[in-house]
Design brief:
heterodimer, A: alpha/beta, D-Maltodextrin-Binding Protein, domain 2, 2 domains, five-stranded mixed sheet, B: mainly alpha, MetI-like fold
Chain lengths: 360, 333
């Protein structure tokens, strides 16, 4: 019996050691907001084990009205999702953030006004008040004001601005329509909330900023130079680049699934992880209906541009150049960011595709 | 006591009597010079300085720090006029700013994490008009007006409560409880009730200032030395005279303590209130919007303005306190 128990002990040791050898690497991905269908692909990749297949144990972190860049640069998260203007502005301020994949190929940023306000053109904003979100979400609005030749209270050197930018904590019901003439709204979220408040679409003017020549790329995946340069990331035995590659492969697989199975995704993978933040407003408060509608709108932003050409997650150099040009023209950036701002390596490794094959 | 005090003051060392601290002065000067030399050499560079430079810089900070400390210790041993008593603080500030500027430049710390003091001062200058407008909104319209409303309501309430034992039992427990409400918890509510403009922040400020002032004033009006009341009775003084001659003077130190606390609460309430929505102006709005876009030079400039205003306001109330309660134990020499 002595022998058996020794063997048993050896077996127990082996069992204990085995997971350690094939251990999954714990990493954190910082989402741009509270859980909702906007991040469906990541929830699917986690729930369906796409991350685990790649040897990753991914924690998806929610955030309120701060920039995801702060948590990634501080090291509290390893990767993050944010918008291009936020990323490039941070890069210009010396933060070593790197763009590694472009998930949404179109902007979903809209401006909404009551038809009764009588705004014929979105540039007729002089003397008007416009609701904007802080924390790096105001750049599309700033670009719009500047493109229209207007100054705003978001400019730190203008004391008598043409447009009053009103900040508020994200819920449009706080300001619209009583306190602002025009309000920022994501086509996949706040527009439906405003409709839920009793303003049907036929009572509203909705301007999509990409239709106004302001197509600033939105949800992208980024990390820092430090992560990409790591030889042995957090003692996992994998390089930072390898981990980035695996994260992208699993995330894009999750996105492809989410977009192809929208109702199932919302039902099984979005609603279980979200609380009140998934609800709409007023007559459209029901979380399930709101998220299924949001998933449909998100799918449109995902399945455009490079994704249509069979290259999901690809940052089209032309689209990137257009975003940069707009930000430089509107003096949000003082110059074009350096070449290290975008790293195609992990995306190419993850998808087996090349920049040449995917560019428009 | 009066006969003793000249003797005591004769034994005190007078300025100029002790030897000047030559060693400390030299160290202090060396440290400053080394920092300035580094800054001149590295002013235009955008990369991190080589190791040798950083080592020398560390040495300069250590040497200068010891020097400044020595001078401060020397001055602390002497009774000085207010101007010279301020020298150690001024020297520490100057040296701290120089050292911070040099270290941030030597390590090429990105401005999106920590801007250099020179960048903050430059921004303070270029954005002065905007910051003035922000300060008007936050300090005058929100903090001072809110403070005025809060105190304006608190004083009659305190007088009423001091007259009515019923209110002392029924109202004061709630006032004490409300005095400890954290302001950020109230700000979103106020924004819903009064909108995004300055009145909602003034309301937050008024409420937060109101309760501490009530609580303190009532205590001051009621916790009067029995002997004084007995004395007044023995003079056959009427209620009114007792009130003006005993209760009010007794309440003043309590009131001023609450007012000084109130200035800090008012600044916090106004700035934090703006984080929950603002109409494109205000120091809190500026801090929030610029922190979100990593414009920390502007954030620190706004913090600096808020701090200076807060200190000046506190100083004003403290000055009034000395003027009106100079007889009080805590202020007697």
């Amino acid at each position: 019996m002595q022998r058996t128990s020794l063997a048993g002990a050896a077996l127990a040791c082996a069992v204990a050691a085995a997971p350690a050898a094939a251990d999954t690497v714990p990493i954190a991905l910082q989402l741009k907001w509270f859980p909702q269908a906007q991040f469906a692909g990541y929830f699917v990749a986690k729930d369906k084990g796409f991350y685990a297949e790649e040897g990753l144990d991914v924690t998806l972190l929610p955030i309120g009205d701060q920039s995801p860049i702060q948590t990634v640069v501080s090291g509290a998260a390893d990767f993050g999702t944010t918008w291009i203007a936020d990323l490039l502005a941070a890069r210009e301020k010396g933060l070593p953030v790197v763009h590694i994949a472009q998930v949404f190929q179109r902007s979903g940023f809209a401006m909404v006004a009551l038809k009764a306000t009588g705004l014929k053109d979105l540039c007729d904003l002089e003397g008007r008040s416009v609701g904007v979100w802080p924390s790096g979400n105001e750049y599309p609005a700033v670009a719009l004001f500047r493109k229209c030749g207007l100054t705003s209270s978001l400019d730190p050197t203008v004391s008598k601005p043409d447009v009053t930018a009103v900040t508020y904590p994200f819920d449009p019901a706080l300001v619209f329509p009583d306190r602002v003439d025009v309000v920022s709204a994501m086509i996949y979220n706040e527009v439906d909330q405003i409709v839920g408040l009793g303003y049907d679409l036929d009572k509203l003017d909705v301007w999509l900023l990409p239709d106004q020549g302001i197509n600033l790329l939105e949800d992208l995946i980024f990390t820092t130079e430090r992560v990409l340069a790591a030889e042995n990331y957090k003692g996992s035995g994998l390089s930072g680049r390898e981990i980035a590659t695996r994260l992208l492969r699993a995330s894009l697989k999750g996105w492809a699934y989410a977009v192809a199975h929208q109702e199932e995704t919302v039902e099984n993978h979005v609603l279980p992880v979200c609380g009140n933040t998934c609800m709409g407003s007023g007559t459209r408060a029901d979380a399930r209906a709101h998220q299924i509608w949001q998933m449909r709108e998100i799918a449109k932003l995902y399945a455009a541009g490079a994704t249509e050409r069979g290259c999901p997650g690809f940052l089209d150099p032309a689209a990137y150049a257009a975003s940069v040009q707009l930000l430089v023209d509107q003096r949000i950036l003082s110059e074009a960011p350096d070449a290290r701002t975008v790293d195609y390596g992990p995306w190419q490794e993850a998808t087996g595709k090349t920049v040449e094959a995917c560019r428009s | 006591m009066a006969t003793l005090s000249p003797a005591v003051s004769d034994q005190r060392p007078r300025p100029g009597m002790a030897k000047p601290p030559i060693a400390a002065l030299v160290l202090c000067l060396l440290g400053h010079l080394a920092l300035v030399a580094f800054l001149l050499a590295w002013w235009r560079e955008e990369t991190a300085a080589p190791f040798a430079y950083r080592l020398l810089l560390g040495l300069a900070v250590a040497v200068g720090g010891i020097g400044v400390g020595g001078i401060a210790r020397h001055l602390a041993r002497h009774q000085l006029d207010p101007v010279r008593a301020f020298v150690p603080a001024l020297l520490t500030l100057l040296f701290g700013l120089l050292a911070l500027e040099a270290v941030l430049r030597a390590y090429a710390v990105p401005p999106g994490l920590w801007p250099t003091p020179s960048a903050v001062f430059a921004r303070l200058w270029t954005a002065r008009r905007v910051l003035l407008a922000d300060a008007w909104q936050t300090f005058v319209l929100e903090a001072v007006v809110g403070f005025g409303i809060g105190v304006g309501w608190a004083l009659p309430t305190a007088l009423l409560v001091a007259r009515c034992p019923f209110l002392q039992r029924g109202f004061m427990p709630y006032a004490a409880a409300f005095a400890s409400i954290p302001i950020p918890a109230m700000a979103p509510v106020a924004v819903h009730m009064f909108g995004l403009g300055w009145p909602s922040k003034a309301a937050v400020v008024a409420v937060t200032v109101y309760f501490p002032v009530v609580v303190n004033s009532v205590r001051g009006l009621l916790e009067v030395d029995r002997n004084l009341l007995d004395l007044m009775r023995s003079y056959a003084a009427d209620e009114r005279t007792t009130f003006w001659r005993v209760r009010i003077p007794n309440a003043l130190p309590f009131l001023f303590t609450a007012l000084k606390l109130g200035t800090a609460l008012a600044m916090i309430g106004a700035i934090v209130g703006e984080f929950f929505g603002a109409t494109g102006q205000g120091l809190g709005f500026r801090i929030q919007i610029e922190a979100g876009r990593f414009g920390f030079d502007m954030v620190w400039a706004a913090i600096l303005v808020a701090s200076l205003l807060g200190i000046a306001w506190f100083g004003l109330i403290a000055g009034l306190e000395r003027r009106f309660t100079g007889w009080h134990v805590s202020l007697r020499e």
